[in-house]
Design brief:
Strand content of chain B: 15-25%
Helix content of chain A: 25-40%
Oligomer: heterodimer
Number of strands of chain B: 8
Structural class of chain B: alpha/beta
Distance between the termini of chain A: 6 Å
Strand order of the largest sheet of chain A: 9-8-10-11-13-12-19
Largest sheet of chain A: 7 strands, mixed
Largest sheet of chain B: 8 strands, mixed
Helix content of chain B: 25-40%
Radius of gyration of chain B: 20 Å
Chain lengths: 588, 283
């Protein structure tokens, strides 16, 4: 049984696609954020525009919440199916727990023939109240949200302001919504008992999604051009940047395909402007040839790769971490590349910003790997540290004597000249070339040139490894057991560690933030542990295999590939079984 | 004063087959740049893959030898980054009319201010003479031993359809005319396309200089703003093959219309520094 915390509330809005589930969820996150609580969210939806089943879960607390949480306090069900599904203990949708006996289910009182279970059912005249204010049936969501706000013990005025902002440009509609919400709020308090949560409200927070964080991080890192073809879940960054193009001075474009996108941004980077592209696995597959072009011509390039379950079109609206092999293997031959996997919203911002400098410093492709869960869920932050210096790396002086674009250096990094710069005219070549950039594949073939160029390029990786920051860890100091994790599973793994530690199990976690190249310190961190467990949102344990090969360890693998993220209690249970502290997982 | 030799890379001599039409295009590009007095530092020549793609290497400008068919989006990226540069995409017919077709179409449609010159010899040269999209019906090549059966791609009609604002054809056997067309194409503000009939002396013996020379004729007194006439001329082929400017009109470029690009070259625009005030939007 999940422990319900007094300073935490989990609300789920459930309905069909087109019912306004997502915007209702976002209103809740924003209300909590403005109230001075931390919140995070989870969007369960299908690849259809109308119909189907979807739900949006918001978890809020006065301490940082790291994942969507399991357990459920309040359900706002917009249809009968929503009532049935989320109060039925036999259904464990995507790993999420249904409403328990202390939970509150809010729904329209026209829904009558539902299966009664051990839950506080709170039928309300949502539609009747809504009808007083508008013909738009979506207004009943607002009434339901008003009731949920009452049940959570949140200030109604803050909620009202969020509603006003949501409908800001629609004047009267905003006020009608506020009135309807207030009736929902009052009705709930007059007829039912709130949960009695006790929060310490802090400073207001900012609400942001992973895709937005990547986009903002890129802007903070000097982004001037974003060219990308739409593909879920990378599109949230594209949409955000398109809406802010003028404000941030970023040129944003959808070209004819992903191949065009990546070649266009290589052109811009070549010309000295920081440009970036993004896609998900299928679209990224089309870009792979040009990834090698960036590696060979040594043109800086940042690629945002937001994963969703494959193969092929896979599960378009679900989450997975299954593209690591693809990113590590993208394009033929050996060439330097750097792959980052942010674990949360903050890391998405800071790592993307850093990637802009790293790409230019090392003149090579740099990846930001995310997934649908990280890209699309809203989270809260106190702020970002906005101090940052853009570093254009090693640039050639004007009119260099005998300029060599691919000068052999100790670090592998050669001074770059960009078009428009006086003197230093040269050719950058996708064929193997000498230090000048002249092709060495035919008339002037010289095997030594090939060998020296390969070594020069690959030396960039050694140089980079030397400047890597230590691998982030969580309670690793006295840990007997260690979890290896990458990307968006971070918050859930950390909570699983907390749960197990509260039971006296000495366990810790390491976050593989530099997915490539791997930080050599991982070898040290994994030494002398009783057991190493890899947690991955994919079938085969892609990172685990790679770590095994590099550090000669054999992690036990916990994977999930149903399209949903891990849940902390379920994960903690599974880990307990793997380390032999529990015979089997008993889920309620 | 610049002369054409100032635009040539003194270190690397061209290595095309003797008699290759690409030599004439190398001369035309360098002569045109000299005539227009464009500083070599302000020129980017981008190429794809194939015999044509070595062009940037032989030039003393900024050059980029990229991927098969992908030279056009690359060139657009360069132009969008720094609109002060003179950007020439130089490719082949196999390169640009097979894998690069949709890039050609959409970049023309956007009216990006670049010059796209295609060395069109109806075969793949570097991969030893396979039939290209412009191969005439009946052409015998390694991949069409019984003769090509596919309707040839019509670059002029395609460019017109796409919305290119400058559409021309030239002939490697007439360097002076080719140079004049190149000068006009570079000067034209918008997407300029030049299809250059450029015989492959090694793989295409049927469509040689001798075949084309008596057939090509200069378009004279052509009303270059008349689309219907240009479109009609695009289908003239066989015994009479028009060379010259088919179509030229003024239309705002993509760079003129985009709300960010119209504020000047991206490379000169200030980077937005993110502040606490910006974060307020997310409250």
């Amino acid at each position: 049984m999940t422990i319900m915390r007094q300073n935490e509330v989990i609300i789920r809005v459930a309905g069909a696609a087109g019912d306004g589930v997502q915007s209702a969820g976002e209103i809740l996150v924003r209300t909590f954020a403005r109230s001075g609580l931390y919140a995070t969210s989870y969007n369960y939806y299908q690849d259809i525009i109308r119909g189907g089943e979807s739900w949006y879960q918001v978890r809020a607390s006065d301490v940082k919440v790291k994942n969507q949480g399991d357990g459920l306090d309040i359900l706002v069900a917009l249809n009968q199916d929503g009532v049935e599904r989320h109060t039925n203990p036999d259904i464990n949708e995507g790993g999420a727990s249904p409403l328990g006996k202390d939970g509150i289910a809010i729904f329209d009182n026209s829904i009558k023939n539902y299966t009664k279970r051990d839950t506080n059912y709170c039928p309300m005249p949502l539609a009747d109240i809504a009808a007083k204010y508008s013909k738009n049936t979506l207004l009943k969501n607002t009434v339901g949200l008003g009731a949920a706000i009452a049940a959570s013990g949140i200030d109604f005025n803050i909620f009202a302001d969020v509603i006003r902002d949501q409908f800001g440009k629609k004047g009267d509609i905003a006020e009608l919504n506020v009135k309807a919400a207030k009736e929902g709020y009052d009705y709930f308090l007059a007829n039912y008992k709130p949960l009695g949560k006790k929060f310490k409200f802090g400073k207001k927070k900012y609400m942001i999604s992973g895709g937005m964080a990547v986009a903002l991080g890129a802007v903070a890192g000097g982004l001037k051009m974003y060219v990308a073809y739409p593909m879920t879940p990378a599109s949230s960054a594209l949409h955000f940047l398109a809406q802010h193009a003028k404000k941030y001075g970023v040129f944003v474009k959808i070209p004819e395909d992903e191949i065009s996108a990546i070649n266009t941004v290589i052109g811009a980077n070549y010309a000295g402007v920081r440009a970036m592209t993004g896609s998900s696995g299928g679209g990224f597959a089309l870009m792979t040839e040009a990834v090698g072009l960036s590696g060979m011509t040594e043109v800086p390039l940042v690629i945002y790769e937001a994963q969703r379950p494959g193969p092929s079109t896979g599960l378009p609206t679900k989450t997975e971490q299954g593209d690591l092999n693809q990113v590590l293997g993208a394009s033929q031959g050996d060439f330097p590349r750097i792959v980052f996997a942010p674990g949360d919203i903050e890391e998405a911002f800071y790592l993307t910003r850093e990637a802009m400098n790293i790409a230019e410093k090392y003149q090579t492709p740099v990846f930001i790997m995310s997934d649908l869960y990280l890209a699309e869920h809203y989270d809260t932050i106190d702020s970002f540290d906005l101090n940052f210096t853009i570093d254009h790396g090693l640039r050639a002086k004007d009119n260099e004597q005998d300029y060599k674009r691919y000068l052999i250096t100790e670090t592998g990094i050669s001074p770059r000249a960009i078009p428009g710069q006086p003197g230093n005219m040269h050719n950058e070549d996708s064929d193997e070339h000498n230090e000048y950039g002249d092709v060495v594949s035919d008339a002037v073939t010289n095997p030594q040139d090939r060998i020296r160029m390969m070594q020069k390029r690959m030396r960039k990786m050694d140089t980079y490894i030397e400047e890597m920051r230590p691998t982030p860890t969580y309670h690793i100091e006295d840990a007997e057991y260690v979890i290896i994790q990458w990307g968006s599973t971070k918050g859930t793994v950390e909570e699983a560690v907390d749960i197990l530690r509260s039971k006296g199990i000495k366990i810790g976690a390491i976050e593989v933030k530099n997915v490539f190249p791997l930080n050599p310190d991982i070898g040290t961190l994994l030494k002398n542990k009783k057991k190493i467990i890899a947690v991955e949102n994919n079938y085969s344990g892609q990172l685990s295999k790679y770590i095994s090969a590099q550090f000669l360890v054999k992690p036990d693998l916990i994977t999930k590939y149903d399209g949903e993220a891990f849940y902390p209690n379920a994960l903690a249970d599974e880990i307990e079984v793997r380390i032999g502290k529990k015979k089997e997982v008993i889920r309620e | 004063m610049m002369n054409m030799n100032d635009y040539k890379n003194k270190r690397v001599p061209p290595d095309w087959c003797p008699g290759c039409g690409n030599f004439a295009q190398l001369s035309a590009i360098t002569m045109a740049l000299a005539e227009l007095k464009i500083d070599p530092k302000d020129v980017v020549v981008a190429s794809g893959i194939g015999c044509s793609s070595n062009m940037p290497e032989f030039l003393n400008t900024y050059g980029f030898h990229g991927l098969h068919g992908r030279l056009v989006p690359f060139a657009a990226g360069v132009k969008w980054a720094n609109s002060k540069l003179t950007v020439i995409a130089y490719g082949g017919d196999g390169d640009g009319f097979f894998e690069g077709t949709q890039h050609f179409y959409h970049t023309a449609k956007r009216n990006v201010d670049i010059t796209y010159m295609v060395s069109d010899n109806q075969v793949f040269g570097l991969t030893t003479g396979q039939a290209s999209p412009t191969a005439p019906i009946g052409l015998r090549t390694k991949t069409t031993p019984d003769g090509n059966i596919e309707t040839p791609f019509n670059p002029i009609a395609f460019a017109l359809n796409a919305g290119a604002t400058f559409v021309a054809r030239a002939f490697s056997g007439d360097v002076k005319h080719l140079k004049d067309i190149t000068v006009r194409a570079i000067k034209h503000k918008g997407f300029s396309f030049i299809d250059v009939i450029s015989p492959c002396v090694t793989w295409n013996k049927e469509n040689s200089y001798e075949y084309f020379r008596p057939r090509v004729y200069h378009l004279e007194n052509n009303d270059v703003t008349n689309f219907d006439q240009a479109y009609k001329l695009a289908f003239e082929w066989g015994d009479h093959i028009p060379i010259g400017v088919f179509y030229e009109v003024e239309r705002p470029t993509y760079e003129d219309l985009d709300e960010v690009l119209r504020d000047g070259p991206l490379i000169e625009q200030k980077v937005h520094t993110l502040t606490e005030e910006d974060l307020e939007e997310f409250a």
